Amino acid sequence: MDHALLVAREIIVERDGRRVVDAATLVLEGGARASVTTIAGPSGCGKSTLLRAIATLIPRTHGELLFEGRTLGDVGLTEYRRRVAYVPQLPQMFEGTVAENIRTGPRFRGATLTDAQVLALVERVGLGAELLTRKASDLSGGERLRIALARSLANEPRVLLLDEPTASLDPVAARVILDLLVGVAQGGTALLAVTHSVEHAAHLGGKHHLMTAGVLS
Fold it and tell me: Alpha carbon of 142 to those of 91, 92, 115, 149: distances in Å?
């Protein structure tokens, strides 16, 4: 694990006395070209719960998170969530325009993105300048997902956690998102993507895991 970027070790999540996630361990590697890791499995098997636990959005019953060799306590929750970004299946847009949404994360840490930087982020996710002045609440599902990706990338994360990034998209839109994610990984951001589609997992490449009844294999 010398090159480990993010380690989730022996993660257990219990609900109502039942183990939803049962001692799952994942290792994401860093490097010039970051790793891609996918978790496939049927609905209700615990894969989204594991992702949310790694994102620190729900409590862990047991287990440890290490980022760049440091514990969560050493990294700090705010810094961890900036460096390990979570994009949900149905991302919510903040009030205001698309450009204002993209600027949100950096603004929270006292940074200001230039117009050129905002445009570059929108173009990176395959959208055009004409969207920047639109109300974010008016975007389609596929556009919301891409703007949520741009919003996360604005914080320069080392890791992206993606929950069903192609859910509810038609095959053409899903292919656009998958190709985009491959490009993000090639640019140096590690990906951990949960998907119900073995085909989409294969498209992303990298390491593949299967989850069944909370057990990761």
Answer: 10, 12, 23, 11
C-alpha 151/C-alpha 148 separation (Å) is 5
The whole-angstrom separation of Cα 39 and Cα 51 is 9
Domain count, the chain: 1
**Residue 127 domain boundaries:** 4-216
CB 163 within 8 A of CB 89: yes
193 CB-near residues (< 8 Å, 6+ apart): 36, 37, 38, 39, 161, 162, 165, 181, 201, 204
Selection from 28, 21, 25, 7 nearest residue 206 by Cα: 28
> Whole-model pTM?
0.89
pLDDT tens track for 18-60: 999 999 999 998 765 568 999 998 888 999 999 999 999 999 9
CA angle (139 as vertex; 48, 189 as ends), nearest 5: 50
Which residues fall within 8 angstroms of residue 66, CB to CB, at 6 or more apart? 4, 6, 7, 9, 72
CATH of the domain at 76: 3.40.50.300
Helix (H, G, I), strand (E, B) or coil at 195: strand
- The contacts of residue 89 (CB under 8 Å, 6+ apart) are 48, 163, 164, 165, 167, 168
pLDDT digits (tens, 9 = 90+) for 155-187: 989 999 999 988 877 888 888 889 989 988 888
